[in-house]
């Protein structure tokens, strides 16, 4: 659809430096036009919607041009949003979560606050290239005229909320925690981080709000063009991972493994202990609490590459390879990273036989198992560093969670039962739950009480009886081999 007009691949433009990754903001606007028109054509009854919320990829930023607010508050319902908003963005190509081009800005920020751990203590994370503050600093330094011409900077989530609200929507605490700008304890912008990033940021970002806030009624554009009720309220949008936590109704002790474009692992930490690996965000369903998250860049796109190379492009053949090969893959271990990852910063393919000797190739079936086992060993090893210890339930979500053979390997490697909900898009379900919760949250109704009768996640895989015996030693080997690759990368 619109992606072909904008010549993106996987929804993004990968620039020549292979570090800068952007998406045309008008492509996202067109996508919303298309979605809404399609729902209208299918006869969806918009007047029944009492409140709505949504989610967007985390960290990406949208730069609204000076004067854009006037346009946004006076949208003509006879025209599409992308026609109306064509001239509303000072930066037409929005930096997205895949970007890793802001290393210099990350170094500057860490130096300004007194070091990586201090930054993590304030904002929940050391400096990460994709985090919005560092992206903003880069725009300010490299495109000063565009920065000067900016009236408001929003995240993808609050940008999408703005389209429904017909005005600038607040950044919520949870998605706002992915910027290296928010103090996650006071839930206010950190002055030292703002000052070290760019001038006038407090005005440009607006006041952050709790993730359960009702922002106001839907704009008259949506009332007249699609038939929404005037009383339909817009609840703050949040990041896709926080929304997913809401959709899974994750509780303390659970761990969610999300298998989307990126793979993420998240949990509800018992203590607030930010470290140099992973992130702590404000919790999207309980404003006093937190969520911990790890992001792995090489998720589904890498699984697709190995599927294309070893399984003729078929998930069925890929799955059959998992069924034909044994738990532990006869000691073969693989690392597969198409692009430099976040956790850990490794690139390329690295294969080891059972003696830890590096080899150049595996047979196609061994390769498929090495990829999936390797990815899940990595998820478990790093989740344990983040505080995951109990062998309770693993909640799986994201596109690849519909593949039962992949999920069986997840259960074996974690030596834990795996549960899924009956929609693989938990971020979408979580947004619907949050839309329901927002209007009653202020009167003290808890998210979990409100949703106590919602369908429970279903058990989809239990670990093989030999799982612990096979994977306990392999996880130790995996940790050693990962360190060996990292050392080689550093030299
Ligand atoms: N049967 C399947 N087996 C494995 N992976 C799958 C299968 N079906 C879809 N996927 C993967 O799911 C991915 C999309 O996941 P999704 O959670 O929708 O993405 P996003 O994180 O961008 O929201 C696709 O890139 C695809 O590789
Ligand atoms: O950067 C992160 C989390 O920190 C990513 O998880 C993004 O939030 C978007 O991921 P996809 O939904 O495109 O996989």
How is this structure best described in words?
With 491 residues, the protein is of the alpha+beta class. It folds into 2 domains: 2-236, ATPase, nucleotide binding domain (Nucleotidyltransferase, domain 5), CATH 3.30.420.40; 240-491, 2-Layer Sandwich (Nucleotidyltransferase, domain 5). The protein is 42% helix and 17% strand. It is built from 21 helices and 23 strands. It has a 7-stranded mixed β-sheet, with helices on both faces. Strands 1-2-7 form a 3-stranded antiparallel β-sheet. Strand 21 (394-397), helix 18 (404-414) and strand 22 (418-420) form a beta-alpha-beta unit. Helix 16 packs across helix 18. The longest helix is centred in the C-terminal third of the chain and has 24 residues, at 467-490. It is globular and about 65 Å long. The two termini are 45 Å apart. The mean pLDDT is 96. The structure holds adenosine-5'-diphosphate (ADP) and 5-O-phosphono-D-xylulose (5SP). 5-O-phosphono-D-xylulose binds next to helix 14 and strand 17.
